[in-house]
Write a structure and sequence with these properties.
Layout: E1 7-11, H1 16-27, E2 31-36, H2 39-51, E3 55-60, H3 66-80, E4 85-88, H4 103-131, E5 134-139, H5 152-175, E6 179-186, H6 200-213, H7 218-229, E7 238-241
Parallel strand pairs: 1-2, 1-4, 2-3, 4-5, 5-6, 6-7
The structure holds NADPH dihydro-nicotinamide-adenine-dinucleotide phosphate (NDP).
NADPH dihydro-nicotinamide-adenine-dinucleotide phosphate binds near residues 11, 13, 18, 37 and 64.
């Protein structure tokens, strides 16, 4: 079963990677349920997809709240009759040096980037296990593979989801539930991610770096599309995506 006809729940769908992925998958015949907190953005994106002949619906969600993630998945079932894929993509990156001790931001990253992903896995697991089919896709980061200065806690959250995703894949294979997992490790992608960095020096450094290296989120959308499009007995478990000019 290819992208066409699949029902895909996408968190962080109101901008950046989630928005680009929603538009591409819908253009290729998937039915997409968009989730994020900014309703005006979700409405606009869903409307654009529907006007262009695709099928999209949306529901506001704060991924740190398990009941809201469950409601998003339920909304996909109500609108489209099933759920085949969840794209756990919502995330935040308020980077700073550890010495700045910005503990509020550390906690927010843990809540959104780790607990948000776990809430997504929890919401679909009973459904995917019962139907013996499903695909969990999660956006980690190259900061979940390597250490970067300024990325002590962000990187920790992205390493954490790498582990949860790979163990989910291994256990599903052992249990025979046919749940595929795909973890994405993008490098610099031009989105709104840098808009919320509170530490001024880090924000300025990263903005300069992205100006030189950042690429379009469409690159990640194409990778997600490719992973979903594989035959059901093929699980592309990991992708690392760099701008060609980023070392
Ligand atoms: P954006 O800031 O454009 O997108 C982030 C999305 O997450 C938004 O849709 C935002 O929507 C949503 N979001 C944030 N907090 C919450 C929350 N509590 N509940 C629900 N949704 C939330 O950045 P990107 O597209 O770049 O980010 C997508 C993912 O990609 C993130 O996980 C990020 O860590 C990862 N990533 C990005 C890279 C990059 O260079 N851009 C590189 C590597 C990984 P809203 O505010 O409406 O809730």
């Amino acid at each position: 079963m290819a992208v066409k006809g699949k029902v895909v729940v996408i968190t962080g769908a109101s901008s950046g990677i989630g928005e680009a992925t929603a538009k591409l998958l819908a253009a290729n015949g998937a039915m997409v349920m968009l989730g994020a907190r900014r309703e005006d953005r979700l409405y606009k994106i869903a409307n654009e997809i529907n006007v262009n002949g695709g099928r999209a619906d949306y529901r506001t969600v704060d991924v740190t709240k398990p009941e809201e993630v469950e409601a998003l998945v339920k909304a996909a079932q109500d609108s489209f009759g099933q759920v085949d894929v969840i794209f756990n993509n919502a995330g935040i990156m308020p980077n700073s040096p550890m010495s700045a001790v910005r503990t509020d931001e550390w906690n927010k990253m843990i809540d959104v980037n780790i607990k948000g992903v776990l809430n997504g896995i929890a919401a679909v697991m009973p459904i995917f296990t019962a139907q013996k089919h499903g695909h969990i896709i999660t956006t980690s980061s190259v900061a979940g593979l390597k250490n970067y200065v300024g990325s002590g806690v962000y990187g920790a959250t992205k390493f954490a989801v790498k582990n949860a995703m790979e163990v989910t894949r291994m256990e599903s294979a052992n249990e025979g539930t046919n749940i595929r997992t795909t973890t994405l490790y993008p490098a610099a992608i031009n989105t709104e991610l840098l808009d919320h960095i509170g530490d001024e020096q880090t924000a300025s450094n990263m903005k300069n770096f992205y100006k030189q290296h950042g690429i379009s989120p469409d690159a990640i959308a194409r990778v997600v599309n490719f992973a979903i499009d594989q035959p059901e007995d093929v699980d592309i478990s990991e992708f690392t995506i760099y701008p060609t000019n980023q070392a």
